[in-house]
Known about the structure:
Largest sheet: none
Number of strands: 0
Helix content: over 70%
Amino acid sequence: MDVMGDKATLFETGRFVHPSGPDEVGEVAEDAAEEVRQRLAAESGDVEAMSVLGAMLLRRGDLDGAEPHLRAATAAGDRAAANNLGVLLHQRGYADEAAGWWRIAAVAGSAAAAHALGRHHRERGDEPAAEYWLRQAAEQGHALGAYALADLLEHRGEAGAERWMRSAAERGHREAAYRLARALDRRAAPEGGAGADDGVVATEETEQWYRQAAARGHRRAALHLGAILEKRGELKEAGRWYLTSAKDGEARAACALGFLLRDAGDTESAAVWWLRAAQDGDGNAANALGALHAERGEPQTAERWYRAAMDAGDDNGAYNLGLLCAEQGRTAQAEQWYRRAAYAGHREAANALAILLLQVGDTAGAEPWFSKAAEAGSVDAAFNLGILFAGRGEETVALRWYERAAAAGHTEAALQVGIARLRDGDEQEAERHLRCAAGCGSAEAAYRLATVLDARRPPEPAHELGESVHEKSECEEWYERAASQGHRRAQVRVGMLAAARGDVVEAARWYREAAEAGSRNGAFNLGLLLAREGSEPEAAVWWTRAADAGHGRAALRLALVYARRGELAEGQRWADRAVSLGPVEVAERAARLRDALRQELSA
């Protein structure tokens, strides 16, 4: 029970509880002795003792015992007693009579009574009267009055709310400190954005108020403080605040603590906290448990938790159910769950639904879902729309969607924009997008960027004694990056650059890597390198692989090898193959060789 009299601060230490230890027993004995002293003084006519005794009994819940003492002290003009008599009458359900005594105390200068009277008027919808009395309390430095005034002004959208919220927070009001921090968060967030716990870096002042509220036991403040610290990388302290908040019953903190523990490798402890949060109705925790059981190969348990998430109002539950069904080949059920989540506004579910429809040939049904997901901010959906329109030959529309996805950081979209700009002759824009995609790990973008840079590279200078001077250029670095990522054409190009430098071993390594990955040019070039080194039999093996893959020059080389060996029929066969494969100059040479071999065979 809150006792609001001026002298009541003497009795707001929480000592009036059942003893549980030796120290507390001592305190209770002391309080009992104090009550006896006050009672004796009150019986002798001491007004202050009557007021204090009444407050003590009121705090203990002895309304019948407190009332006569408070009435006697009030009649003698004690404003604290008048305030506490109002509290007592309010507890008994006599709100109007309580307000009368609060008014008397407030007029006499009691800030606590002014606060109580202000709240009384607000509960009855009389906001002007409420503001008047709450302002009286706030201006006297009453923390509860300042908070209640700030709440009223904020509710009405009037200026001054933050000033009084700050005043209450500075006087130790934990809810005021929390709400002040939230207000600062919202101000720091971009328009329509979220607060510090959702991506905006908190200011030092915001963190200070969260910390003050959390230290006073505000569980949501502890949650937000944990989020701020986690984003800053201070995981140990973040975990402590999450734990504090979770123990106080904040499900979101329990869920966040679970993710922190999972990231630290303690999946078992994470599951314990997720379970606690999920049982308290946290959909995100239920989804996390579902994902955990899905990873363990327990689809039935996973499905149960995804359904629990859905029941908690989390659309991710339906989306995850769709993913689970899709993995199991239950396409009809997957579509059902994707649709449910998509209709609820889940953009990734809309994108997944569109992909599912596209896979079964329903292009017309897929397009609107891709559009809906893209308009809602799904980068993957924007990219998929680009693919869809490109497949129809609508390159302009496709490019628009690729550019949108690229602007949001989609690597493959940036590559497609780069390719389109190259096709249009806009080399500068092409290079910008290719650099973006290559920097994000696209091997194809790295290769194409290298070719752009290679085309504008000046001839290498020669040493004054005629020896080639070589410094690795930027284009070579991009070729090598693409090659190291398994890009076959880049591997061939790196091999050619190494061969040009005279590094036969390095050239052979890259040619072989490309050839073994299926590159016919790599196989052909490796054959050339081996032939020059005197290993024609091995070279023929690689040329055969290249020719079988459609390489005309490799077929011509084989024809020449077999002709020199005297195997004319086999040479003629490869010459025929080279004629059919081309290109033109190869086909012409192969035709002459074939005719010569035919004459030799018929002679």
